[in-house]
Write a structure and sequence with these properties.
The complex is a heterodimer of chains A (about 100) and B (about 190).
Chain A: H1 3-13, H2 19-31, H3 36-48, H4 50-74, H5 84-95
Helix pairs in contact in A: 2-3, 2-4
Chain B: H1 2-5, H2 8-27, H3 30-46, H4 57-79, H5 120-132, H6 135-145, H7 151-158, H8 162-185, H9 187-192
Helix pairs in contact in B: 2-3, 2-4, 3-4, 5-8, 6-8
Classes of the chains: A mainly alpha (about 100), B mainly alpha (about 190).
Chain lengths: ~100, ~190
């Protein structure tokens, strides 16, 4: 690979990051502000890559489901049920 | 009414199920959740003098349980240090497509099925997938997504660095989506393998 090709690859990498890095940046974005360079690369990637767009949507859906059911529990709409035997056991143990 | 709610004997019936749901959606294990609920009641009975009536009993019990859940995370994350070092590869490691999704991990367009967020069967599958994650990974994911802890708090409790945390949550998401796809979207295909 000659010097010109290396330069060309570095130039391309300014615009295109692989999916591995793009999906990681999606996660990192939730914690802290991306640098300008990261944000730009992520945006370029998301424009061209439908898989990473789907990944973002899937993730949002899973998170939303978790939060949604948490709100249900807060409103006394329980998806799980404590074993009645365990309830009796706790009561017995409490009386000791 | 006030008097009866201060009687520990009635707490188990009134709040047991709520606390159990609260716990199991954070620790993903029936036995552990039951034990945490029981511990919560014990601690509450012991500390009943310190209950000042500023909050409701339910809020007070929940705050005790929250602390117990975090202690549980800490205990588990201390005993297992290898949460980040699992061997799954989600992306191609060589060739011209290095860094591109592996075929079996390609994300899919799930959004066609919009009713899933309401579906409790789907939620139970999601819970079982969360239960399959390594402990530390599940703990950090839950603290972040459900309880909205700050990065500092998560890192302090689980004794990890922020960049470790991002990597762990990223991997948790990748594992979860794969697991959901296998168990929910393509269950038939799994049977033939």
């Amino acid at each position: 690979m000659n010097a010109f090709q290396k330069l060309y690859i570095r130039f391309i990498k300014c615009f295109i990051v692989p999916c591995e890095q793009a999906s990681f940046l999606l996660t990192k974005k939730e914690f802290e502000k991306l640098t300008f360079r990261e944000a730009w690369r992520l945006r370029m990637h998301m424009i061209k890559c439908k898989y990473c767009r789907w990944f973002e949507k899937e993730d949002a859906m899973l998170t939303h489901t978790m939060v949604h059911f948490q709100q249900k529990i807060d409103k006394n709409n329980m998806p799980f049920c404590l074993d009645p035997k365990k309830i009796e056991e706790i009561k017995r143990n409490l009386q000791k | 009414m006030e008097d009866s709610s201060l009687d520990p004997g009635t707490w188990v019936d009134l709040y047991g199920n709520y606390l159990y749901n609260f716990a199991i959606t954070r620790v993903y294990d029936q036995m552990v959740a039951e034990d945490l609920v029981q511990d919560t009641f014990f601690s509450a009975v012991k500390a009943i003098q310190s209950f000042e009536g500023r909050s409701t009993i339910k809020t007070w019990l929940t705050s005790i349980l929250k602390r117990k859940i975090i202690d549980h995370y800490r205990k588990n994350s201390r005993s297992k240090e290898d949460a980040i070092l699992d061997n799954d590869t989600f992306f191609q490691t060589e060739g011209i497509l290095k860094g591109h999704w592996e075929d079996e991990h390609l994300p899919n367009d799930w959004t066609a099925d919009v009713s899933l967020e309401e579906n409790s069967e789907f939620y139970k599958v999601l819970q079982s997938c969360l239960a399959n994650l390594p402990d530390k990974m599940a703990a950090s994911f839950t603290m972040k997504e459900i309880d909205d802890f700050s990065t500092d708090e998560i890192c302090k409790e689980l004794d990890i660095t922020p960049s470790n945390l991002w990597v762990m949550i990223h991997r948790a998401k990748l594992k979860l989506r794969k697991c959901i796809e296998k168990k929910w979207f393509l269950p038939d295909e799994k049977m033939y393998k």
